[in-house]
User: What shape does this take?
Amino acid sequence: MLAVEEISLHPRGDLLCRAATHWRMSGSSATCFLCDAVSLHPAAHLFAWSGEAPKQAAVAGLCCDCWRGDDPTAIDEAAARVLQQVVPGGCFLDPRAVLP
Assistant: This one.
């Protein structure tokens, strides 16, 4: 999961920016993965991709209220549920842990 201002700093920043833009443009389906509120301008995005040279990434957004809610356990649990749907049995890494 990356805060909006961190996306461009990631090594796959171009891919993630495109995915986030597509997610925002999806309109009413752009909901917070924690509280289900419509959130066209989230505070953070959760990304998933596979392979060494991905061309697409799955994305979910986290609204500003949930991001500021200071409940990292609830955020982590909701993120794990979302990621298990996209990558069943996947290994989930904190992107800050793999940045150069």
